[in-house]
Amino acid sequence: MAEGLLGRKRGMTQIFSDKGHVIPVSVLEVGPCYVTQIRTGAKEGYTAIQIGFEETRRLNKPARGHLKNLPPLKFLREVRTSQVDQYKVGQKLNAALFAVGERVDVTGTSKGKGTAGGVKRYHFRGGPKTHGQSDRLRRPGSSSATTTPGRVLKGTRRAGRMGAERVTAPNLEVIQVDTERNLVVVRGAVPGAKNGLIFVKKARKQPKGKK
């Protein structure tokens, strides 16, 4: 089967386990997604399906031609699978792909923080509060040596743009699945803001002790 689906992050909440423990969870609306294209080994050299998510009224002519006889879908994503013979163009996929107890990887775009200093961006300790350094508390300190090399080396951690990057939260446990509303509830937080676009797929690496 397909390894993942596109969806939206609907927010966070908490639920209670059978033993009364509080479990922080994220609610994800996954799908419905449509199969928009099938790639085969004979033609493309690999096997995969392309899925589309979320209908839109604004679509250019090339996209409308590609999605002929399909709903006007806003987002497209290619998903590798070795069982392309089980799919056909126009097939609808939903949250039934996932089951309670299994592990998933959730990929999204992290919240943008703008330009941030070293303390916020890289958790630098900052300077001392005493010995005449009352105005250097959040400064990063030295970035390089003097004569040798006489410059700041590439990759040095300094102030700069923070966030708005592709981030994957791995091995999140599926707590609940609602196929009627296409909702998947996973333990813990997922990257991105509320209503942000996400991609949920079967976990690549299982944690130790899990099958």
Q: What's this entry about, in short?
A:
The chain is mainly beta.
Question: Could you characterize what this model shows?
Answer:
- The protein has 211 residues and is mainly beta.
- It folds into 2 domains: 148 residues, Translation factors (Elongation Factor Tu (Ef-tu), domain 3), CATH 2.40.30; 40 residues, no CATH class.
- The chain is 5% helix and 40% strand.
- The chain is built from 2 helices and 12 strands, in the order ββββαββββαββββ.
- Strands 1-2-11-10-7-12 form a 6-stranded antiparallel beta barrel.
- The two termini are 18 Å apart.
- The relative contact order is 0.26.
SSE ordering:
EEEEHEEEEHEEEE
The second-level CATH architecture of the largest domain is: Beta Barrel
What is the distance, rounded to the nearest whole angstrom, between the alpha carbons of the first and last residues?
Answer: 18 Å
Gross geometry:
extended
Q: Could you report the average pLDDT, rounded to the nearest whole number?
A: 90
CATH fold label of the largest domain: Elongation Factor Tu (Ef-tu), domain 3
* Cα Rg: 23 Å
The multimeric state of the shown protein is single chain
Give the helix proportion (percent range).
under 10%
Number of strands: 12
Helix segment tally: 2
What structural category characterises the helix and strand content?
A: mainly beta
Strands side by side in the biggest sheet: 1-2-11-10-7-12
Q: Tell me the count of domains.
A: 2
Supply the CATH class of the largest domain: Mainly Beta
Unreliable residue runs = none
